[in-house]
Amino acid sequence: MNLHGLRTLVFIQWRTGWKGIASWIVGAVGMMLLTAIAIKRLYPDAAALAGYAATQDNPTSYMLNGKIAGLGTLGGVMANEFSFLGAFLFPLMGVALVTRGTRRDEELGRLELLLSSPVGRQAPQVAAVLTAVTVALVSGLGCSAVMAAYGVPVEGALAFGIGFAGVGIVFAAIAAAAAQIVERSRAVWMVGMGSAVAAYVLRGVGDVYDLWVRWLSPLGWADSLRPFGALRWWPVAVTVAVSAAVLAGALLLNARRDLGDALIRGRPASPTASRSLLDPLGRALILRRGVIISWTLVTVVLMGIYGAFTDQIIKAIEKNPNLEGFLGSGLGTQLLERVMDLFLMILAFIVAGFVVQGVLALRGDEEQGLVEYELAGAMSRHRWLAVRLLAVVIGAVVVGATGAAAVAITTAMSTGTASDVGKMMAGSVWLIPAIVIFLALAAAIIGVLPRYAMAGWAFFAVAILLAYLGPGFNWPTALVNVSPFRAIGERLVGGHASIPGVTALLGLSAVLLVIAFAGFRRRDVPRT
Amino acid sequence: MPQPQIIDVRGLRKRFGTTQALDGLDLAVHEGEIHGFIGPNGSGKSTTLRVLLGLVRADAGEVSLFGRDPWADAVPLHRRLAYVPGDVALWPGLTGGQCIDILARAHGGLRDDRRRELIERFDLDPGKRARDYSKGNRQKVSLVAALAADVPLLILDEPTAGLDPLMERVFQDCIRERAATGCTVLLSSHILAEVEALADRVSIIREGRTIMHGTLDDLRRHARTVVTASTARRPALDGIVGVDELEITSRDHSVETHCHVDPDHLDTVIGALHEATVRSLTVSRPGLDDLFLSAYSGNDP
Ligand SMILES: Nc1ncnc2c1ncn2[C@@H]1O[C@H](COP(=O)(O)OP(=O)(O)O)[C@@H](O)[C@H]1O
Ligand SMILES: [Mg+2]
Predict the structure, then answer these.
(1) Average pLDDT of the residues in B222-234
(2) How far is CA A524 from CA A236, A361, B157, in A?
(3) Is the CB of B56 under 6 A from ligand 1?
(4) Domain spans of chain A?
(5) Are A273 and B103 an interchain contact pair (Cβ–Cβ within 8 Å)?
(6) Cβ–Cβ under 8 Å, residues A434 and A421
(7) Domain B224-285 architecture
(8) Using 50, 70 and 90 to split pLDDT, how confident is the model at A389?
(9) Of A85, A49, A47, A45, which Cα lies nearest the Cα of A64?
(10) HEC sequence for A362-427
(11) What mean pLDDT comes out for the span B241-264?
(12) Helix (H) or strand (E) segment spanning residue A6
């Protein structure tokens, strides 16, 4: 193994990636902080904590959050609330940081440049993993510090933080191995996300049915530290051993392959363009096929899991009316519909995220000079933009419709009432204005201020925050309703969407689309 | 006889933030010619071509392409041209052959026979994915797509960057063949030799302004001739119009003279040398390199 120049490479990683590194740490610790603040407020004493624990002692919660040891303690409650977020945040952190320094740099030719200097063959990979390990540890220990600051016993808090840091580290190793096996950084991402979903499902199934499969999941290893119950440290060894083994495999594979090569190569490709590739819309769809498929799969799985637990969620809430607060109180028979609404809102988050990503990807095309190239052909700017937006819309319909069908069918299976399928599908139609507004907004950014593409994500994040956390924090309704996800109304199932909200969103979307097209017709291409 | 102009640009200005990319640029390209558009890096070549394609809107100045406004009539105009951008980006996941088909379709169609022939001549593997191509091979994809299109105008932005000398020859042959069929070519470059080998006329720009234009012979005529002579006596050259950088040194029994002479005054200078009894004489035409170096360094020759 040749690690020459490792220090320089680590320096380069931090120097060029400090923004990403900082946002992962701030994101993880910040979310822990928000969780801690909320829990301190909502459950100020032992009785309240015990009450909360009682509501969570059921299969739904096991599936979603894992079976947390010591759930009735302050730490246990915080762990339970942070669980879902952490289960995806830490894996993605590890995958993102490693992909960035390995396959993506390789793809962009930067690795070739680096390796032509006196830098060892394995140094870039190790530098990326070291960076990811450091960031995971800092984030995990940051979470520990927050917990301890809010009164959780230090040892438990420490174990909790180390548990999640370990999750990040395992996924960093998985990404390092995937970067040797597949050819594209996007594929590394897909392997990472797929493993994250698998880890989540395995842990959930293992906890619900008390099965050994939880030991296949890095999340299961973290839980088995039992930070707030009968604490034990030996599962850390499992994390370390598996990470080390996977990493060793990655280094071995790396040493045996050529730069730019991969264990699994892409399909052999045709030297001529098919009819659909020559058509601009067909081309846009074909080039994003992989993205559409992976979003669809993830959405179907996630929404299917939600739906499958409808019955348990309802029973849990009926047992503990405290939980109703989030959905509205005194619901009685409407409770089921409100739960369905909540599922639909989550579906809207996902589809809106898909739309924002799809539209803002046009910016990447522009930076690469592809937009200039296409517009130098005989296609008008309006038609170009329309076609590309249409491709995003088609993708969103696929993701949204399959997601809605998945959640509607599994909900109906869980409640045992077939007519719930139709009810939920009908309700999902009302999500459209909340998604279209993000399409229009992102398009307007591309049309007028392409440099501020990140603003599209900022709006998206704020909208989710308002819609998801606003009611729990008792923020003013007027503020919460600014979020498109709330503006459409909270009672979509059963046909009580907010007509003024829907009208306003559609009107605003139309205005933004006009701005997008007018702006794109007038501006320079490429514009930096 | 005034030839019809395919491209006519006058007083073009464009500012990006604090950078004045184009500062009163002029460019005239006649029908059927190969026009070299030369300037150092950052002088505004790519920006000019993007204005011609209606991709970038000029702040001021007149631009006409086939007698029309490229900003307003981009689409119909683009049917009549093919473009090779400077920084060639392709779809990384598609093969070179797929990219060629897509690009040629965008340029208004492709001639199958030409596609096959060009792929062969450029020695390109069309079944490889674009992301696996070297820069030179991506450039070839772009060139094949442009050359295979049946259009009367080619706009090429530094098209040979990344090509090896052999491929550069192929490129030159292909361009000449297209020009022979009446196709107009606007070829931007910062490499003199390439333009010298191909262009009928050239425009030289610096810092967004045209500093010279004309045929290569025209330009040469404007440059000074270098005269080196050895004479028996001192020639009476001091104070003669059109003589520059005059150096006269006496050595034993002869006088060495070195000077730059304006072509129009060559006759007078040779006369004066003759008077002083010429023992040896060299008169060299200016190299184009000198021309460019002097143009780039800011001395108008
Ligand atoms: N989109 C842009 N934004 C800002 N500056 C630009 C942009 N395009 C070109 N420039 C600047 O304008 C000048 C001319 O650039 P360019 O036309 O690319 O020159 P050339 O092609 O001759 O190398 C350079 O200083 C360049 O940095
Ligand atoms: Mg350029």
Answers:
(1) 85
(2) 55, 18, 18
(3) no
(4) 1-268, 270-528
(5) no
(6) no
(7) 2-Layer Sandwich (3.30)
(8) very high
(9) A85
(10) HHHHHHCCHHHHHHCCCCCHHHHHHHHHHHHHHHHHHHHHHHHHHHHHHHHHHHCCCHHHHHHHHH
(11) 86
(12) helix A6-42
- Tell if the CB–CB gap between B106 and A380 is shorter than 8 Å: no
Q: Among all residues of chain A, which has the CA nearest to that of B88?
A: A369
Could B131 and A272 be called an inter-chain contact, meaning their C-beta atoms sit closer than 8 Å?
no
B46 within ligand 1 shell (Cβ under 6 A): yes
Asked if residues A2 and A122 have their Cβ atoms less than 8 Å apart, the reply is yes
Query: For chain A, what percent of residues have pLDDT higher than 90?
Result: 63
Cα distance between the two ends of chain A: 42
Q: From ligand 1's centre to the CA of B206, what distance in Å? A: 12
Which residue in this structure is represented by tokens 């923004």? A19
Q: Nearest-CA neighbor of B164 among B144, B126, B135, B132?
A: B135
Q: What are phi and psi of A259, to 5 degrees?
A: -60, 135
Band of pLDDT at residue A426, cut at 50, 70 and 90: very high
* Residues A348, A328: Cα–Cα separation, whole Å: 20
User: Ligand 1 mean position to B19 CA, how many Å?
Assistant: 8
Which two tokens mark A105?
Answer: 């740099």
B135-146 pLDDT tens trace: 899 999 999 999
Q: How far is A521 from chain B (nearest CA, A)?
A: 10
- Bridge-based pairing of strands B184-189 and B34-38 is parallel
Q: What is the Cα–Cα distance from A366 to A450, expressed in whole angstroms?
A: 9
Say yes or no: A375 contacts chain B, CB-CB below 8 A. yes
The strand order across the sheet containing B184-189 reads B81-84, B153-157, B184-189, B34-38, B201-206, B209-215
Secondary structure letter of residue A45 according to DSSP: S
CB-based contact, B93 to chain A, within 8 Å = yes
Say which ligand is closest to the CA of B15.
Answer: 1
- Which ligand 1 atom is the nearest neighbour of the CA of B86? 21
> Percent of chain B at pLDDT above 90?
59
Tell me which chain B residues have a C-beta less than 8 angstroms from the C-beta of A525.
50, 55-56
* β-pair partners for B281: B229
Q: What is the pLDDT of residues A264-315, one digit of tens each?
A: 776 667 889 888 999 999 999 999 998 999 899 989 988 998 898 888 788 8
Q: Please state, in angstroms and rounded to a whole number, the distance separating the CA atoms of residues B49 and B9.
A: 11
Cβ <8 Å between B98 and A107: no
Report the C-alpha dihedral over residues A427, A428, A434, A438, rounded to 10 degrees.
Answer: -170
Q: Write the DSSP assignment of B200-228 as a string of letters.
A: SEEEEEETTEEEEEEEHHHHHHHSPEEEE
- Boundaries of every domain in chain B: 5-220, 224-285
- Residue A34's nearest CA partner among A459, A460, A473, A350 is A473
Flag whether residue B254 sits within 8 Å of chain A, measured between CB atoms.
no
Interchain CB distance below 8 Å, B101 and A260: no
**B107 CB within 8 Å of a chain A CB:** yes
How far CA A366 is from CA of A347, A393, A523, B117, B133, in Å, comes to: 30, 20, 13, 31, 20
CATH class of B5-220: alpha beta
Across the strands, what pairs with B202? Answer: B36, B214
SS3 of residue A2 by DSSP: coil
Distance B51 CA to ligand 2 centre (A): 13
B87 Cα to the center of ligand 2, angstroms:
8
Instruction: Show which of residues 44-63 on chain B sit within 8 Å of chain A, judged by CB atoms.
Output: 50, 53, 55-57
Between B159 and A317, residue with greater pLDDT = B159
Please state the length of chain A.
Answer: 528
Count of C-beta atoms within a 10 Å radius of residue A426: 15
- ipTM, 2 decimals? 0.82
* Gap between the Cα atoms of A17 and A135, Å rounded: 12
CB contact under 8 A, B57 and A369: no
Ligand that comes closest to the CA of residue B50: 1
Pairing of strands B243-251, B254-261: antiparallel
